[in-house]
UniProtKB/TrEMBL annotation:
Native organism: Steinernema hermaphroditum
SUPFAM superfamilies per the UniProt record, alphabetical: Proton glutamate symport protein
Compartment annotation: Membrane
Coiled coil start-end: none
Keyword Glycoprotein: yes
Family, per entry: Belongs to the dicarboxylate/amino acid:cation symporter (DAACS) (TC 2.A.23) family.
Chain ranges passing through the membrane: 21-40, 93-117, 193-213, 234-261, 267-293, 305-326, 379-396, 402-428
Annotated GO CC locations: plasma membrane
InterPro entries: DAACS, Na-dicarboxylate_symporter, Na-dicarboxylate_symporter_CS, Na:dicarbo_symporter_sf
Name under which the protein is recorded: Amino acid transporter
GO terms, molecular function: glutamate:sodium symporter activity; L-glutamate transmembrane transporter activity; neutral L-amino acid transmembrane transporter activity
Amino acid sequence: MSSNTRKGCFLFKRSWTTEEIQLVLTILAIFGGILVGFVVRVQEPSEKTIHLIGFPGEIFMNMLKMMILPLIASSLISGLSQLDAKQSGRMSAYAFAYYALTTSVAVLTGIALVLVIHPGDASIKSDKFMSADNEQHVSAFEKFLDLIRNMFPDNIVQASFQQTQTDYVIKLIANNDNTTRESLDVIAKKVDGMNVLGFIVFCIVFGVVIGQVGEKAQVLANFFTALDLVITKIVIIIMWYSPIGIASLIAAKILGILNIVQTAKMLGMYMFTVILGLGVHLFVTIPLIYFAVSRKNPYKFMKGLVQAALTALGTASSAATLPITFHCLEMNNKVDPRITKFVLPVGATINMDGTALYEAVASVFIAQINGIELSFGQVATVSLTATLASIGAASIPSAGLVTMLIVLTAVGLPTSDISLIIAVDWLLDRLRTCVNVLGDGFGCGCVHERCRRDLIDSEPQHIPSIVVNGDGTFEKVTEVV
């Protein structure tokens, strides 16, 4: 048999790994969803048909959301219980330094591109913004206070399904002369939505204290470690269903757009600016930071996160993608589980590079279509507010549209113009979520490189020794020192 024949036989007999099969199925699901969406559009489907096409995707999102709380609790508590306070403190310092750097650079990248390209054309809007909106919107300062409030929930069970949100309420107050006047009160109320930030803070404290208590709390540490293993197994099962769910979500979104061609013509330059900014941040900025920290090929590391990136494109949710990101980092990129269990849940909640860049670009774009030239101080305000707003953005689909109200209000821009960009947000939301997820993954990689030696030094050493039993026999045991 010739060498070429033997080589061909070898390639034919090569078995695919589970990760490779799932990756190929996910890629096929994305293209399949796009194809189904455009083919069915020609038939002008009814609302019921669109709902049925998107139903498998709805089930997929429900399964992923179901895993968020148990995954965060088990991963954070089991990971931090194995670390001492010094190690967890060092990991926190590196992680938050990475978050601050990448989010700031993302905002500056978006601001620079939108000012240079100037995608905002005043002809897009027929009516120009002349004065401030009559509606009252909560200030950026109050939103920042909401962030602090949600970090320390008064009820940890309630935090699993509700969070605190500040709102303005107009009240009528009677004067002494029998007349009434309006009073604007600021109230903090509970709204539906998982308070992931508060849950994370509680789990961090819980895990660190278990590690400090030591042997007496080992039962709790073992419980959450076992729970983490069970949740991981469930996630692997869900991953086999993910191609169907992703294809369903994408097809349903395409079918829900009223006029794709007209929307693309009107907002084409805006979409180009956002996508270019996300591309620069993802393929240039983050890899350079990773290379500076690790001196390793960042694109090889990125290759290991492809499955998580594709899932982010389908789900448009950093939190929903969290189980897949864990799997990719630990199985493909060999990142220490003690790092992923701490850095990744926190990053998925507060490290939103893509969202920060998008909000900066969208805010300046809205100013441009209204013929408003922002001053240097207003641009600086947009940069700072977009950074802070992205930290408080929920890791759910289209959360950026909600937090963008803060940015627009901070510089006095019309919040009603958000309706102009909603038509293309379904696509940009998926792209910025992909950047958010990969940014979190690279953050784990950077912390891993900086803390790897400390973690290796802290691993217990197993020393074999011989002991004498009561009956005079010898037994070989292993001591952990």
